[in-house]
Amino acid sequence: MREVITKAKLEKMAADRKEIVFPVGTILTQAARDWAREKGIKLGFLREQDSAPVREAGKEKEVKRAIVTVLGYDRVGIIAAVAGVLAGVNVNILDISQTVLQDFFSMIMIVDLSQCRVDFATLRKMLEDKGEEMELNITLQHEDIFRYMHRV
Amino acid sequence: MWIMPLPYAPEEILETVRMVELENLDIRTITLGISLRDCADSNIKTVGKKIYEKIVRTAGNLVEVGEELERTYGIPIINKRVAVTPVSLVAESCDEEDYYGLAEVLEEAAQEIGVNFIGGYAALVHKGFTAGDLKLIKSIPRALSQTERVCAAVNVGTTKAGINMEAVMMMGEVIRETAELSAERDGLGCAKLVVFCNAPEDNPFMAGAFHGVGEPECALNVGVSGPGVILSVVRNHPDADLGTLATLIKQTAFKITRMGELIGRAASARLNVPFGVVDLSLAPTPAIGDSVADILEAMGLERCGAPGRTAALAILNDAVKKGGAMASSYVGGLSGAFIPVSEDAGMARAAAEGALSIEKLEAMTCICSVGLDMIVIPGDTPVETIAAIIADEAAIGMVNKKTTGVRIIPAPGKVPGDYVEFGGLLGRAPVMAVSRYSAARFVRRGGRIPAPLQALTN
């Protein structure tokens, strides 16, 4: 069974250490995580057979395809900017559909994340930041959502 | 290069984005039900230790998994919560008089795993009390006023068993006492207590969630939401006839529920626990536009509470169920539109303006889930009157074979017209007037109301 580390257990383990490494799959309770953050203790996770610590986010299930939507006022360079972010982390664009209604721009991209160099949450944040910079609303969503919602 | 055709119409994609970005579409709660039946012991300290360890072991990463899903799917999951076996069933194995210690254990466990509410400080007494049930009910006022996260529920009636009027009377007293013990916060303790008739065993919504005796070791139940999404559909079709409107609501409910099914399945896979049910409820929040009352008004009522409210709610409730039922393989819990007052800004406004009274709300509970919910009444309301309100609501549930609940707050020192502020998702509400005529002699008769003819279905 996977071990559960509570705040009390973590306090005992921590002593003066600044970094603690657990086997992958160890569960840390919310209180334990909060405490570690407060004390500035780094938490790492180690796969049983290999020696390199893996990033915690690495365990998230791989997302293969996702949908990027861009909404906002039309201007020069929207597609280039979004495509630039995607290319920068090795995301392939599978399809683009774009409409401009009066001045309002909407674009939908289907992207392939299987070779993506960052995890899903990071990519979403990068796109959101780009959106903020260009005064656009950019979202990144898992394809499953659309499949579940719109296909019986 | 192989070019893949766009598998979704742009309108479909934009519709989903709009629901999440603009219309408050979210998963209201993922609730992990945990059986505590293996935690029994003759020593209450041991019971407490076992309960704590089991909750932390089973739900230790619930919040983490919830947040991970939010990031992966981009759908907010507002609450991550835990429901446990009714504590009276576990605690009565020990020879302790006061079960309050177990409420503290639940509080500590909830704090450790980072959930804001834990349900199951509960007793099922629809046909009568065991010694453990009585001890638990007696400890409810202290448990609710001295802990932050523990929620209590008592089932006082079922269609099959009738209504235990001794329990109804007792709950009138418990509610008053709880309010008085949490007087400095306007009786907030009562917001964590539901008195049920026909309580569901797999309800993911607080305060009434508990893990029923027929449930497995653990199960993940999901509560969807989405009044805002339904509201915008209704607003966008001001001239549609009611049949068309019902169809539109149905289609939207289908989509909302699919989202719940997706998240529920993903969460149960990651937590490695069985998937229980999706609860198809329209659960409002105090946020503007996330209101069931606003939907009724968009359907054509000047104010929620105007004549026509019950018919409008019936259409809404039915359409949500029909759309949702097809979207999920397992539907359960409360599954219906909620009509709380303080948690729904539109309801609170209608109540403040005098458009909505307790009696009108009672009529509305006949055709939707769940009951008289988050209603603030004057602090000096007699316990007999509170008991009689519970009895009325339980009778509606018993006869109509549906769940009804009462979550009512007699705010100490407040009179009709005052406002009470609970904060957060519990919202704010005006104090509503209660009938000044007494039912004391009726509720003091005691006994058990016999099960109705509807119970004889075999």
List the helices and strands and how they pair.
The complex is a heterodimer of chains A (152) and B (458).
Chain A: E1 4-5, H1 7-14, E2 19-23, E3 27-28, H2 30-39, E4 42-46, E5 53-54, E6 65-73, H3 78-88, E7 92-101, E8 104-112, H4 120-134, E9 137-142, H5 143-150
Helix pairs in contact in A: 1-2, 3-4
Chain B: H1 10-22, E1 27-34, H2 44-59, H3 62-73, E2 77-84, H4 87-91, H5 100-113, E3 118-124, H6 131-146, E4 150-158, E5 162-164, H7 165-181, E6 193-197, E7 218-224, H8 227-235, H9 242-271, E8 275-279, H10 292-299, H11 309-327, H12 345-352, H13 358-364, E9 371-378, H14 383-400, E10 404-411, E11 419-421, E12 428-430, H15 440-443, E13 448-449
Parallel strand pairs in B: 1-2, 2-3, 3-4, 4-6, 7-8, 9-10
Antiparallel strand pairs in B: 1-7, 4-5, 5-13, 6-10, 11-12
Written overview of the protein:
The complex is a heterodimer of chains A (about 150) and B (about 450). Chain A has about 150 residues and is of the alpha/beta class. In chain A, about 35% of the residues lie in helices and about 35% in strands. In chain A, helix 1 (about 5-15) packs parallel to helix 2 and helix 3 (about 80-90) packs antiparallel against helix 4 (about 120-135). Residues about 50-60 of chain A have low confidence and may be disordered. Chain B has a domain at about 220-445: Anaerobic Ribonucleotide-triphosphate Reductase Large Chain (Alpha-Beta Barrel). Helix content of chain B is about 45%, strand content about 15%. Chain B is built from 15 helices and 13 strands. In chain B, strands 1, 2, 3, 4, 5, 6, 7, 8, 9, 10 and 13 form an eleven-stranded mixed beta sheet that branches. In chain B, strands 11-12 form a two-stranded antiparallel sheet. In chain B, strand 11 and strand 12 form a beta hairpin. In chain B, helix 3 packs across helix 9, helix 8 runs parallel beside helix 10 and helix 9 (about 240-270) crosses helix 11 (about 310-325). Chain B is globular, with a radius of gyration of 21 Å. The mean pLDDT of chain B is about 95. Chains A and B meet through strand 3, helix 2, strand 6, strand 7 and strand 8 of A and helix 1, helix 3, helix 5 and helix 9 of B.
